[in-house]
TrEMBL record:
The keyword Glycoprotein does not apply. It comes from Cyprinus carpio. This is C-type lectin domain-containing protein. Residues 1-19 form the signal peptide. Keywords: Disulfide bond, Signal. PANTHER family: MANNOSE, PHOSPHOLIPASE, LECTIN RECEPTOR RELATED (PTHR22803). The keyword Metal-binding does not apply. It holds the Pfam family Lectin_C. Residues 31-144 form the C-type lectin domain. Coiled coil: none annotated. PROSITE patterns: C_TYPE_LECTIN_1, C_TYPE_LECTIN_2.
Length: 147
């Protein structure tokens, strides 16, 4: 019986040793079940989303104050950047590029202001808030990918 327990214990240890531990790629930062990375290269919103997609990611979505503050910690202070928010399909109906629910907001006062050409989400606007901006504006961006 002791031999059987020892063999079972060895099997469990070796099985656990072979289990894949998912980690963020080099240069990405983990928070929860996602990895994030800020890119300082200034590009349009659609170019930013395409660059994220080329890395098996999307522009970052935000679902809580904790996640919002975490994203701020990735940016150089007062750096404005793109994240995955847009209302390009229907004016005023905000969506995340990763398809997750739009369940949290942190708009700057008076935003979104509903200008027809401002269909893309800008992060870290006036006092760390969100803004709707012209998608052709060039900014850095934050990508997020699931582990």
């Amino acid at each position: 019986m002791a031999m059987l327990r020892s063999l079972l214990l060895l099997f469990i240890v070796f099985s656990m040793g072979n289990a894949e531990v998912k980690k963020c790629p080099y240069g990405w930062t983990n928070s929860g079940v996602r990895c994030y990375k800020f890119f300082s290269q200034a590009v349009s919103w659609i170019t930013a989303e395409r660059k994220c997609q080329s890395l098996d990611a999307n522009l970052a979505s935000v679902h809580s104050k904790i996640e919002h503050d975490f994203l701020l910690s990735l940016l150089p202070s007062t750096t404005r950047c793109w994240f995955g928010l847009h209302d390009g399909e229907q004016e005023g109906e905000w969506l995340w590029t990763d398809g997750t629910p739009f369940d949290y907001t942190h708009w700057a006062p008076g935003q979104p202001d509903g200008l027809q050409i401002e269909n893309c989400g800008e992060f870290n606007f006036q006092n760390n808030r969100w803004n709707d901006a012209d998608c052709l504006t060039t900014l850095g961006y934050v990508c997020a990918k699931y582990l």
